[in-house]
Amino acid sequence: MQPIDLIRKFAHLTPELEEALNSVMVERRFRKGDTLRGKVNLTAYAYYIIEGAARVYYTRKSKEHTFEFAFENEFIIVSPQLINRMGETVTIQFLEPATVIMMPHLQIKELLQGSDAIDDAARLLFLNTALIQYCSLLEERAGVMQSLGADERYRWILERYPRITECANATQIASFLGITKETLYRIKSGKYGHRKER
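RESULT FIELD:
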């Protein structure tokens, strides 16, 4: 599903309005390892992944901390609060070749507000679609981190992101789960819990 398909769920789009929306939603291809940085790049757009995989991370004390993973048909949204706390270290990194639609929040909002194709309630629902998905993921992750042990967290990430081990390395996965790489290796080898974890 493409972002324009999401809009169609909430609005009657004339050919002219659909063309205008498509003109501001730019499709880009990224190579494995490509990165996006900078406050404008990260906060002016929602990134919708058509195919591929990416992660959001920040650097603290020379160590990368993975904040989010995203795969096909998911949004990447970087909150201004994360940028304010971690500054220019916040980065979107593509873990494999990816096709992404860059959605400029303000331009889409202005186009929809300038038309009578959508009522206020539907407009609000669409504009919050990406944010709702993002908040839902954060809530799910917070619950996992608070209530599950390290081995259960690993099983959760494998279920939540079935392709995670194909494109993310052990350091990135361990960082996301809040465990050490050594603990992750013990979980994967079936030795976790055989000795007291530090």
